[in-house]
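Table S7 (text form). Paired inputs.
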Amino acid sequence: MSEAACVIGSGIQVRGNLSGSGDLIVQGRMEGHVALEAHVIVEEVGSVVADIETQELTVHGKMTGNTNASERISVTSTATLVGDLRAPRIVLEDGARFRGTIEMDVPLPDDI
């Protein structure tokens, strides 16, 4: 995570499009579209209803929306996520609630 992260606090609701190069920590509610070049973290008290394009996503709270990550998506045991996930590395911890599809960008050998 970079030094300066944007924090959407627990009493804050944001609607719209968010883009940039920094990290985002969601403790409140975010609705819309998120396009960030760094790390998006949805805390346990956080809620996101948005499609996300980012480098890395970690979900501890609730999220509805599709995600395209260039590096990794982690859905922890406290998370509830509804949406499609696409990334080279995807982690679903035991206890996580997930509904959607997973697509991992891994080149397949020619003999499959």
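Next pair, protein 2 of 2.
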Amino acid sequence: MFCPHCGSMIPDGSHFCSECGQSIEIGTPQAQDPIYDQDQGQAQQYVPQPEVQQTYDIQPAAPAAGSYSAQTASPNRMRTDRDIVTYVLLSIVTCGIYSYYYIYEMSRDVNVMCADDGEETPGLAAFILLSIVTCGIYSYYWIYKIGNRVQQNGPRYGVTIADGGSDVLLWLVLGAFTCGICAYIGMHLLIKSINTLSTAYNNTYGLG
């Protein structure tokens, strides 16, 4: 064995070093066997080196393909060319089917442009089902709500929308007494308001 103090070789089980005279207590770490250095031609005492902890630079994982991030996703351009003439003609040609597609498009675009305002415009399925259940009354309420929502979000994009849900609803009610003619005026006001908001939205995000 080797003296833990001076490194001299001493008999195993010794309590004192014969070279330096230091006491060797039981449990004292023993010196490691010397390592022979071929270059210097002599034995050198082994000195343990401190363990180096390896660290890794962990980069955040890339988002999975197809995942959506509201902060990084690019906004889509909104339609600004809707008009009452196309709405009426295509609704007649398709026996009213196109009018439902119009409802679907308007609810989708308004929900995008007015996101985070605390409201949600129901889509086509809710529009049809609730209109049937309420004998058509819900359709008036839906148009009234979407008209107000578009008007309230105008300042958000720096525009003032004159016609709100009350104005549109008034023309729809008058349409019941004018063979539906005034109802088309109400739809024209709603379409114009949505086009105005869509144009402001596109300009805000450089999509014009």
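The longest strand covers residues 35-37.
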